[in-house]
Design goal:
373 residues; alpha/beta; L-arginine/glycine Amidinotransferase, Chain A; three-stranded mixed sheet; globular
């Protein structure tokens, strides 16, 4: 579980400075939660996830943990400190005064829950009822960081009520076509309403002085406005990707690799008006290489574009899932040392390498990469 004598320093301003300390998730007890308003639009009609809930098969949990532990050993072998969350009993009914839900989810993807900016670690609101209590898995770590680092700020966004008013009723019928779905997304017609601020941390990318936040199924405009009010020293930019039929979390769509370079999912291109902001600041946006697989693994929420969900260790080094050979080849041509990581069987537990980590410390300070606003 990463026992270190050196005190914690919380400091991370972007996605690419040298990584020194990171949290990696744990698959213990992970469940497939029952359907809820926030999750229904994410699961395709023909998905093997439909109609299933309860604990994931124990042999898949064991294998996911084996791969996660191997990933930890690789990171530690490169001098990176690694901590792990503390799982709770996810296979239990949860409730608030407003709702009851059959089970929770898990704590494999810490990137969804925690946003590190500078010396602050912020717990996101989350937008799924099944993930409302997930922050508890990280509280032991946050408590320790706060005691070891006098400059660390542990913050939590206002917990949402997540009543039925936070979701559009009957948002999608089973007979909706992909063209109709894409038209709704292009019109920014998402399942969440503006009843209360909602955001997942995995919808936020950090560019020093600037934060880029995806407006979609898991983050609404009130959530983006809350981030603007909270991070008053930063500039917050809302983006959307009309080609994404399931706009949930930005890190399989838009991936900064180093200052001036981003790969963008070619099926979910940033609109020209939003792209102009990057171009006038001399950022290059290139199409990501295609995935190596035609479909995700069994019982997986995510798309095949987890291929571009990579973890940048520094401006010359990047971790890529070992079977995503096209993405690895592209990054090699872009001048990176590519570290292949066996990780595909972790995908069903909440995503790939970026999803399953969250920064505690990267070298470097806050810089302005977009002087031309």
């Amino acid at each position: 579980m990463g026992v270190f004598s050196t005190p914690t320093i919380v400091n991370s301003w972007n996605e690419w400075d040298p990584l020194k300390h990171v949290i990696v998730g744990v698959a213990d007890g992970c469940c497939i939660p029952p359907a809820e308003p926030a999750s229904e639009p994410k699961i395709p009609v023909d998905s093997d996830m439909r109609g299933r809930h309860g604990p994931r098969p124990p042999e898949t949990v064991a294998h996911a943990n084996e791969l996660l532990n191997d990933f930890v050993r690789i990171l530690e072998g490169r001098g990176i400190r690694v901590d792990r969350p503390t799982p709770i009993d996810f296979n239990q009914k949860i409730s608030t005064p407003d709702w009851t839900h059959g089970t929770m989810f898990g704590c494999t993807p810490p990137r969804d829950v925690l946003l590190t900016l500078g010396s602050e670690m912020l717990e996101a609101t989350m937008s799924y009822r099944s993930r409302w209590f997930e922050y508890l898995c990280y509280r032991p770590l946050l408590k320790r960081y706060c005691s070891e680092d006098p400059n660390m700020r542990h913050e939590a966004a206002p917990k949402p009520r997540l009543t039925d008013r936070s979701y559009k009723p009957d948002y999608l019928s089973e007979n909706i076509t992909i063209e109709e779905r894409l038209d709704m997304v292009a019109r920014k017609d998402f399942v969440t309403t503006e009843e209360e601020p909602l955001f997942d941390a995995a919808d936020v990318l950090r560019f020093g002085k600037d934060l880029v936040v995806q407006h979609g199924f898991t983050t609404n405009l009130l959530g983006i406005d809350w981030l603007k009010r909270h991070f008053t020293d930063h500039r917050v930019h809302a983006v959307n990707f009309p080609g994404d039929p399931y706009p949930i979390h930005i890190d399989a769509t838009f991936t900064p690799l180093r200052p001036g370079l981003i790969i963008n999912n070619p099926e979910r291109r940033l609109p020209d008006q939003q792209r102009a902001f990057f171009h006038r600041n001399d950022w290059e946006i290139v199409d990501a290489a295609p995935p190596a697989h035609n479909e995700p693994p069994p019982l997986c929420y995510s798309s095949v574009w987890l291929s571009m969900n990579v973890l940048v260790l520094d401006q010359q080094t990047v971790c890529v899932e070992e079977t995503e050979v096209y993405q690895a080849e592209q990054l090699d041509k872009l001048g990176f040392e590519v570290i292949p990581i066996p990780f595909r069987e972790v995908y069903p537990f909440g995503g790939a390498l970026h999803c399953n980590t969250t920064d505690v410390c990267r070298e470097g300070d806050c810089q302005d990469y977009f002087p031309n606003q």
